[in-house]
Specification:
The strands form 4 sheets. A 7-stranded mixed beta sheet has the order 3-4-5-2-1-8-9. The radius of gyration is 28 Å and the shape is elongated. The termini are far apart. It is about 50% helix and about 10% strand. The chain has about 450 residues and is of the alpha+beta class. The structure holds adenosine-5'-triphosphate and magnesium ion (MG).
Length: about 450
């Protein structure tokens, strides 16, 4: 019925040898039914975690408290979880304790959505689908198991997951399930930032994250979790734009590559400073002067709040901060070099990708603009010339300057080096040891002494 990887077949045989059941559950079986590739395999079994640890050589006790261990077997890794019932969600975040059960049916009942509660018995090769998950897969529906309000009050992450799954598969959320969300926002508020972040990360990998964000906007989740983004609703822009700030952000996000998280995040967040930066000019037009700085600050605050990794925060912030370049053919080579020096050579491709997404999000036109294509060619040409673009490329370093000018280490050395880079960006021919030492000497005597 499915193509089950050989190592999974073999893993199932080990369980059988020990007289234990072995089901493929959750995302993997759902994805197989949808004909999508699956990379993580969730296994459910009646064997207790300790017993599973004894059955295999390489076992990581990933979440012993919740009955989960990771088994590394042949070429794959399996998350093996003992059938369980979640006891009392007292705080709306996580079950405070779990109870193991010998029944796969009970285990399936505690799962979030019907499409996630299908099990495949690797022994009898039969599907177990007590909640009609397959029918919902065919209809393209995310439906809570049982009473949605009750299930969402148990765990406030589930409403976010509903929106994420809808976007990931291009599904809709079943009306009663969706209607339950506004009444459980207080429970969503209690969920840890890390769990929310994981769902947002997965949403951002969807073909069109906007589907999920629009659902979140219409049930109050966006306002609660990403208020900076929600604030763009109804904020109109200048005549160039067809959409308000929120819609523009969502369309830009869709237009960015799913496989490049910082660019997708930057596309989503590049204009969130606009509502705060908006001014009405004397002639009645709107301006958003300096919004890139506000957007960069708000984006990094938002990403820190959700505990995104620091490197991703820095990169996203940097892209947002520099997204407002305005190339024209009149730019001199020196101006192009100063641009590269300012944004950093390694960020140039991502900034171009961000601008491309930004343009698509402006009025929905997917063809790249002439000016952007021309800038891209121009950047390439300037980069190919292999000229000095950073302090490291200068023909002298700080030690050379200190020796030649008899300077002690200190901030003045940095000021001098910065000045030399300016000169070399303007005229690359100046980048020789002799010339730079002469320029540095003159600048030092005239400005720093
Ligand atoms: P993905 O392919 O994105 O990993 P997934 O369905 O595997 O999707 P996981 O978060 O890996 O999602 O969870 C695995 C399974 O555990 C789910 O399919 C679902 O059955 C169950 N599950 C996960 N989170 C919850 C939750 N908050 N409440 C109830 N069941 C959950
Ligand atoms: Mg999974």
């Amino acid at each position: 019925m499915f193509s089950i990887p050989a190592s999974l077949e073999e893993l199932a045989r080990e369980f059988r040898k020990h007289g234990r059941q072995c089901y493929l559950v959750g995302g993997a079986i759902r994805d197989m039914l949808l004909g999508r590739p699956s990379t993580d395999y969730d296994i459910a079994t009646d064997a207790l975690p300790q017993e599973v640890r004894g059955m295999f050589r390489r076992v990581i006790p990933t979440g012993l408290k919740h009955g989960t261990v990771t088994v590394l077997f042949r070429d794959l890794r399996f998350e093996v979880t003992t059938f369980r019932i979640d006891r009392e969600y007292l705080d709306g975040r996580r079950p405070d304790s779990v109870v193991f059960t010998p029944s796969i049916e009970e285990d399936l009942r505690r799962r979030d959505f019907t499409v996630n509660a299908i099990a495949y018995d690797l022994d009898s090769r039969r599907l177990l689908d007590p909640h009609g998950g397959r029918a919902d897969l065919h209809r393209g529906i995310i439906r809570a198991i049982g009473d949605p309000l009750e299930r969402f009050r148990e765990d406030g992450l589930r409403p976010v997951r509903a929106c994420r799954f809808a976007a990931q598969f291009g599904f809709s959320v079943e009306p009663a399930t969706f209607a339950a969300i506004p009444a459980c926002l207080d429970t969503v508020r209690k969920v840890s930032s890390e769990r929310i972040r994981e769902e947002l990360v997965r949403l951002l990998r969807a073909p069109q994250p906007s589907t999920g964000f629009r659902l979140m906007a219409s049930c109050g989740l966006l306002e609660l979790l990403l208020p900076e983004l929600a604030a763009g609703a109804g904020v109109e822009q200048r005549s160039l734009h067809c959409f308000d700030v929120l819609e523009h952000s969502l369309r830009s996000c869709d237009a960015a590559e799913p496989g490049n998280p910082p660019v997708r995040l930057a596309a989503l967040l590049h204009d969130i400073g606009k509502p705060a930066a908006m001014r009405r000019e004397a002639d009645g037009t709107l301006s958003f002067h300096g919004h890139e700085r506000l957007s960069a600050e708000q984006a990094s605050a938002l990403l820190e709040r959700l505990r995104f990794p620091n490197q991703l925060i820095h990169k996203t912030r940097h892209l947002v901060l520099h997204h407002m370049f305005n190339y024209t053919e009149e730019w001199s080579d020196a101006a192009v070099r100063r641009f590269i020096a300012r944004v950093g050579e390694e960020h140039v491709p991502d900034l171009l990708a961000l601008r491309r997404a930004d343009q698509v999000g402006t009025c929905g036109d997917p063809s790249p603009s002439q000016a952007l294509a021309a800038f891209s060619r121009r950047l390439e040409k300037v980069l190919q010339a292999g000229r000095a673009l950073t302090l490291r490329d200068l023909a002298v370093d700080g030690r050379d300057l200190m020796r030649a000018l008899g300077l002690p280490p200190g901030p003045r050395v940095g000021v001098l080096l910065g000045q030399l880079l300016e000169s070399v960006l303007e005229d690359p021919a100046l980048n020789t040891r002799e010339t730079l030492l002469a320029i540095a000497g003159r600048f030092y005597r005239e400005r720093l002494l």
